[in-house]
Amino acid sequence: QGIPTLRRVAYLGLKAGWEGPGGRNLRSAAGASGVTLFLAEPGANDYTKAFDRIARERPQAIIASQTIFHFTHRRLIADFAATHKLPSVAGYREFVEAGALMSYGSDLGDIYRRLAIYVDKILKGANPAELPVEQPTKFELVINLKTAKALGLTIPQTLLLRADQVIE
Length: 168
Hints:
Layout: E1 8-12, H1 15-19, H2 21-32, E2 36-40, H3 48-57, E3 61-64, H4 68-72, H5 74-83, E4 88-90, H6 93-97, E5 102-106, H7 108-123, E6 139-144, H8 145-151, H9 157-162, E7 165-167
Parallel strand pairs: 1-2, 1-3, 3-4, 4-5, 6-7
Antiparallel strand pairs: 5-6
């Protein structure tokens, strides 16, 4: 069932995210669950340093932070995780489509539709400073069963039933 012995996870992200509120919250939640996180920070357009650290530190899984930089390199990240038999999670469904184990995050399609509504309002004369700031309201869980099988993992039925999409 999942990874009941999960104790060590690589956080693939930038130092700014690691030290910011999101990183602090993630480390706090991990610590409360008995999981240790470590930062694996890539260089500019170069994942060698981060991947070398992950290989050296031998975590049991990878969390890819939500940055456009990772989004662009999602297939590279998923391939690295698969080669090293590491479950990987991210915030966008596109990572799972590239081979990551699962994602949970805001629905980018919904965000882009909301963005189009804002653009339309502005083009029709609305003052951008008077438009309300919106937060994402639609989130999705996507699970890749093909990846789970390749990793020898069993995803609990309760999680599969909650998923918005299961890739087989």
